[in-house]
Design goal:
This protein has 171 residues and is mainly beta. 11% of the residues lie in helices and 47% in strands. A hairpin with a 2-residue loop joins strand 11 and strand 12. The longest helix has 10 residues.
């Protein structure tokens, strides 16, 4: 296992106002997604990942993060998209997700990290009732950034052990 260089470290960033929250935006393919900044711990340059035999294809392997073993998920595959193509802007976003079994760190590979943005709660619409190619529980809402739509993900649902086990069962 190899260690990677941190691009950014996020220490408990807080909301600017109660009616406005901060989100990390990133791309998967041509789509823009966002996750609440409070779930994001670090952003790392992509580096080698140790393969885990017989794992589901969306689980790329594990990674040594300062002595801790962190599973790494290809977010493109996890969301039913094409796999992330490794390029110079590819990043691993370390997220801390909470489930009934406790809290754990999981890395997600994304095509590129865009920015931390403030999105007022009033600017977040519920996901459309049809046409979304994502599981409804995984989406917190949709917002508009300039002329683009941003899908706000609930990483605790997308990356839960139960969800990943269910994906493995369908493989």
């Amino acid at each position: 296992m190899t260690q990677s260089t941190a691009i950014a470290h996020v220490e408990g960033a807080a909301s600017v106002h109660d009616d406005q929250k901060q989100y990390l935006t990133f791309t998967v393919g041509k789509e823009i997604f966002a996750a609440g900044i409070l779930t994001i711990k670090e952003i790392l340059r992509y580096s080698a990942i140790t393969d885990v035999p017989m794992a589901h294809p969306c689980l790329l392997g594990v990674f040594n993060l300062r002595g801790r073993v962190v599973p790494i998920v290809d977010l493109g595959l996890r969301l039913g998209r094409d796999p992330i193509g490794i390029g110079r802007r590819t990043c691993i976003v370390i997220a801390e997700v909470t489930s009934d079994n406790g809290t754990m760190e999981i890395g997600i590979v994304v095509d590129a990290v865009r920015a931390v943005v403030d999105i007022p709660n009033a600017a977040i619409e519920p996901p459309p009732p049809f046409g979304m190619r994502l599981h409804a529980d995984h989406v917190l809402g949709v917002s508009r950034m300039n002329d683009l739509f941003v899908v706000l993900l609930d990483l605790s649902k997308v990356l839960s052990k139960e969800e990943l086990a269910a994906v493995r069962g369908r493989a």
